Amino acid sequence: MTPIPPKSLIPRLFALIPCAGQGTRAAAGTSALQDGEALPKQYQPIAGVPMVQHTLQAFAEVARIDSCLVVVAPGDNFFSEKTQAGYEVAPCGGATRAASVLGGLQQLADGGAEPDDWVLVHDAARCLITSALIDRLIDACHSDPVGGLLAQPVPDTLKQGRDERVVATVERSDKWLAQTPQMFRLGALTQALKMAQTLGEPVTDEASAMEAAGLAPQLVRGSALNLKVTYPEDFVLAEALIKSRAPTNPRVRKPAAPKAARKVLSDDTSTEPS
Questions:
Q1: Whole-angstrom Cα distance, residue 124 to residue 57?
Q2: pLDDT in tens, the chain (274 residues)
Q3: Rounded distance between C-alpha atoms, residue 176 and residue 137, angstroms
Q4: Please, what are the domains in the chain?
Q5: Exposure string over 131-164, b if 16+ CB within 10 A, otherwise e
């Protein structure tokens, strides 16, 4: 493992991309195959490039981020011939998103990251994230005592349903749609995820773990374009939006990450929900 350089007085920033899910809701409408089976959602091509590569490029354009760690399932060899300077790959993905994030946090800590360093956890399937949105989150949260997440106020009328019938209209003025990245200190997030795991608390994102620990993450205005590619029709929309963007010269970050093992260690697969 490549040691992380000695820390400065300013906490460092790391990106963590859980990439161990199977994306079953998207698979039915996609056609890319690997070894005769449908590729997991995050590896499906969008505008000729695997979805996750769009995500990684956005983080590579943020100079303040020291390194980026991609967490894959054991046995996942997608990156075996694709790894390049700017990110590391760790085959420590678990059966759930929370387990994969915990594995990645441990990998960062083992490489020398400190408990008060910041970690930005981001969905691989939010491939429309931009460096500007990442910078906005960092600017808002780097001095915050808790951290926070990108989110959007709910714009539509919300209905509560039962058996495909409306039973109530839900007040939406205080409702937000959670997005990623979600930015928290490594030590606090690790503790919150472990506590939720021990107590059996449902954890659908990092913010929910922090909430279960009694903390109130900051809501930072994101963008409606920072959507999570989930269903087959989302691929069409994401491709159109990516193609509409002006081309930029890719930036390659010098490796400063804890060096995660790239070798596939087993043939196990993750059932992490997408």
A1: 11
A2: 455 555 567 899 999 999 998 654 444 444 555 554 678 999 999 999 999 999 999 999 999 999 999 999 999 989 887 656 689 999 999 999 999 999 999 999 999 999 999 999 999 999 999 999 999 999 999 999 999 999 999 999 999 999 999 999 999 999 999 999 999 999 999 999 999 999 998 899 999 999 999 999 999 999 999 999 999 999 999 999 999 986 655 555 555 544 444 433 334 444 444 4
A3: 16
A4: 13-147+178-216+224-244 (3.90.550.10)
A5: bebbebbbebbeeeebbbbbbbeeeeeeeeeeee
CA distances from 237 to 39, 228, 233 (A): 19, 11, 7
What is the model's pTM?
0.84
Tokens matching residue 199: 């107590």
What gap in Å lies between CA 201 and CA 271, rounded to an integer?
19
Task: Give me the DSSP letters along the chain.
Answer: -PPPPPP-SSPPEEEEEE--B--HHHHTT---EETTEEPPGGGSEETTEEHHHHHHHHHHT-TTEEEEEEE--TT--TTTTT--TT-EEE----SSHHHHHHHHHHHHHHTT--TTSEEEE--TT-TT--HHHHHHHHHHHTT-SSEEEEEEE--SPEEEEETTEEEEEEP-TT-EEEEEEEEEEHHHHHHHHHHHHHHT---SSHHHHHHHTT--PEEEE--TT-----SHHHHHHHHHHHHHSPP-PPP-PPP-S-----S--------B--
Tokens representing 158 are: 């919300």
